[in-house]
Amino acid sequence: MLYNNLFQIVVLITLLVIVCPILGYYIFSIFSKEENSIKNINKYWHPLFIFSKIELLIYKICKVDKLQNMDWKKYLFSVLIFNFFGFVLLFILQMIQKWLPLNPQNLGNVPIDLAFNTAVSFVTNTNWQNYAGETTMSYLVQMVGLTVQNFLSAGTGIVVVIALIRGIANKESNLLGNFWVDITRSVVYILIPLSIVISILLISQGVVQTLQPYQNIETIEGVNQTIPLGPAASQVAIKMVGTNGGGYFNANSSHPFENPTPFSNFIEMFSLLLIPMALPFTFGRFVGSKKQGRTLFFTMFGLLLIGFIIMLFSENYLHPILQQSGIMEGKETRFGIVNSVFFANITTAVSCGAVNCAHSSLTPISGLILMLNMMLGEIVFGGVGAGLYGMLIFVLLTVFISGLMVGRTPEYLGKKIESKEIKMAILAVIIPNMVILIFTALALCVPSAYSQVSSGGPHSFSEILYAFTSSAANNGSAFAGLNGNTPFFNIFLGLSMIIGRFGVIIPVLIIAGSLSNKKIIPKSLGTFRTDTPLFAFILIAVILIIGALTYFPALSLGPILEHLLMKSGIIF
Amino acid sequence: MTKNRSIIDKKIIKASIIEAFKKLHPKTQIKNPVMFVVYMGSIFTSTIFIKDILSGSFDGFNFQIIIWLWFTIIFANFAEALAEGRGKAQADSLRKLKSNTYARLFVNGSEKKVLSSELKIGDLVICESNDIIPIDGEVIEGIATVDESAITGESAPVIRESGGDRSAVTGGTTVLSDKIIVKITAEQGDTFLDRMIHLVEGAKRKKTPNEIALSILLSGLTIILLLAVATLYVFAIYSKNISGDQFDVTLTVLISLLVCLIPTTIGGLLSAIGISGMDRLVTHNVIAKSGRAVEAAGDIDVLLLDKTGTITLGNRMATQFIPLDGVTENYLAERSQLASLSDDTPEGRSIVVLAKEKFNFRGRDLSHFQIVNIPFSAQTRMSGIDINFDKDITTSLRKGAAFSMKQYILDHGFDFSESLEKNIKQLALEGATPLIVTENGKPLGIVKLKDIVKGGIKERFDQLRKIGIKTVMITGDNPLTASAIAAEAGVDDFIAEAKPEDKLNKIREEQSEGKLVAMIGDGTNDAPALAQADVGVAMNTGTQAAREAGNMLDLDSNPTKLIEIVEIGKQLLMTRGALTTFSIANDIAKYFAIIPAIFSTLYSLGAINGPLSKLNIMSLHSPQSAILSSVIFNALIIVILIPIALKGVKFIPSSTSKVLVRNLLIFGLGGLVLPFIGIKLIDIIVNFLNLV
Asked: Does A519 contact chain B (CB < 8 Å)?
């Protein structure tokens, strides 16, 4: 059974390793030139022909000047203004859903603090959900509000990393591209086509897609039950592809209408990893060295594997109290242990946040890995775009320290790493960590906050720590157990999502601007190489050490303590 | 200035200890963010401690922690003071040279005794044997031997003469023989000596760009760790409340944890590393005008080297006379000697010497002949003499390079014979320079001038190539000769028949590709190139213009010094990187010591130790001794690493990945393992002495 399941994971990864370099190259062709360089796209028989027409139509309607090239300030301003209006729109939509069409269940308006939290959550690609979709959001809000933001927030992640990559690859130019063109292309050429294919595959497995009202059914036991329905498949597809993670239903991907079969589970895991795994290859193409991209890919893959192996051992370990190995509590029988554990690992590593099992029910060490995946800054592939730019931040820090050790002013891909880059890189590391630590501490001081936990002991501490970690890292998965729909959590989780998202995007774009202006120093024998296994190894070490230094105290009072207590027979 | 000074000098240590306490002033402390956190922590814990004493309770454990926290700061101060102290000692000895002496001012043809402090730029001063040259200047008349040992440490006197590239004299040096008239070129307070005192003293030291970047990184880490520890306080109280246990997390303990975690090792040694980097240059008799230049030296991609004096020994020497058919070697040697008598270039002199050595032609009495000297001119590109052996018949002896002599020979109706051509080519292939000697236009033969490549230079270039530095030789020779010498010396590239502006152009060309270029030069025509180069090393024997243009000055005037400068620059960065890695790697062990110590009783449920005490993998004796041992280790490691900070990490020229792996193993892995051992040992001692 175990080997059969592991084989599925091997198949999944093999498939991804084959597909991702191709997708990476495709993404490169979309963004590398002013006109996208996909071959034959102007021919009517090309599958993307219709999309190229849509692209041009959007420019026409929005009066986008395709040739306008932006420096980092303009680019950043466009990102911020675009996201701000996205937030306002989604916020208002929830507040007035009662009076709008496509609300067959007559759901009331969303309370203001929850609407704020949800709007922020979907704009920042977090998809933390303090609500149950089926009892809170109308079809209209789900489709026009949440699903649209799923596309746009994912697109924002992609364009920010593309701007950073252009900054690295540029030679003494201050131009990073045109935000409006980039965001249009990311949605039209990447997210929409992939979502269409995946929605169809999911529908084939039985994921619901309908605008009919909820059904009242008499069960075999003779009880009346309301069966929630809705346009789920289309939202589930983008929730995975765009690493959003916001479930249509409250139970997310463990709900039988969102993830009905082992094969739908396979598709969801595949689509979740797809773009984050492809972007390192896009990076390699942009900087003219596939090896550089591969090095980043393997660094991320290494970190993913370490986490997976530890979790696998932890879950199959002989439970000291139950005297049984392979605990099924909180897991769906149709997925089994391996697929649940792998799903949990990738959904936290890839900043998705969709869940197919209860994270709270995993062993403490598994819970620790999940938190660590997020605490490291969502860089183990990470959210679409966000993962790669987060990783590049760590690359800069690693290059700086190891560059010093070989006796040269550190440089990355020919760009000198100086005070400005280090200042911004360290800010991008500090800001999310600061939010996690301070807000967790704050919650522990406010009775109305820490009383919302459901378990006792270190597990309750983990619940709150997990919530702020998940929101600041823009993951969105929940540890469960914590009732987050209170004014305190709605507001502070919302703030932590905003700061965690834009507190990184802003420094990243400043770095992009600064690197873009620099000369490219030609490689010499004295240059420290960043495309070797040695570099990947050092990079992993730096990431783990910075993560450990920041969170060892916190984790030791949460999952580590819980693990040690469990071994002596106490569980929570 | 003495070479090879040892790091440990009792006088300097004593002065540094005093200085370490003086540096406790907040104004000094705030300059170093990492150490400032320790400083605030120490003040804070001390205040609590004093309050406790006033209320009548004394805690020996807290007292010891506080002592060691203060020691952490004092040790860091001591490291900095020690690095500065070495410079200060040098500055003091230099300052003695500045004693106000009388100078012999030369006005309107007469001498006047004035105080040297009254001299102004443009004044003329006479200096004779045993006079001290009052201020920097330029020799405008005369030639003298000067003892510059006070500044360069080189005991052999040097020659200073008017005109040419050896005209600059430095204030504080002593004239040994003869008489020169010096035109003052520097103002009091801005002389070479003044600037050197400033530099070695570190008074003008500014943080270099790389140092700033590293400080930012370290400050960032400090902020993260500050957050981690501050929030831990809240987490601990929460955990205590839900567990229902009784235990206290005191602020002193939390501050101990913070101080142990923040990168105090590198933070405390950072400025010492920078100062000692400059200082190491000084021990190599190189003065850097800024720390920035030293850092840039570590990044050099291209090294521009003059052939003469750098790659080859001094100048070309005549090594052989090659007569043409019908001419004896003896005759050629005699005529060559005559043609070179008035030529006082090193080549000319070497011909005279060779003829003397080979055929014993001593200086002859030529006074009864009528002689016209024909000096080398840019138009004719040849030199020689016209001599009247008989009354009315003038014999014209000329010598010059092949390309300038050819036309001259043809003009006089002689053949530029094939065997001549063949010989010239052959010599060029050997890297030698042929000089053709003619008598009344008729070629007599060739004098072979040869460059002698310095011993060991090839190995140095090999080392440079390994660390990725390209060497370019600059020479006025023709391409054939140049390539032969380039091959012999093992340089990567050369510029032949180079004009002064070629250097500048080459530097610009390399820089436009993003490379960093270093060059060394002495002449006035080197000045623009020295200024353009990222690292321009001027030789002390050079002209004032060159010395102004460069950003470093080599007191020994030894061109191969550039290689050492590069090594020192690299060492500087490596030391910073290595100690940063070490400092961060240390934290893992400290966590394993302190976290279980703080939470040893959490969830103990009646037992002595709670579950988190299982993290005490070093099995330290007690929570208090664990914390104290970590703090002691953290303080002592600064002292232990002072020698590395001052001497620098050992530089081994090899590939970057090898260097990286080596440093990672020593400072990364070592930094991970060492504190586990160190803290355990200290814990044993602490318990043996019953300190807690």
From this structure: yes
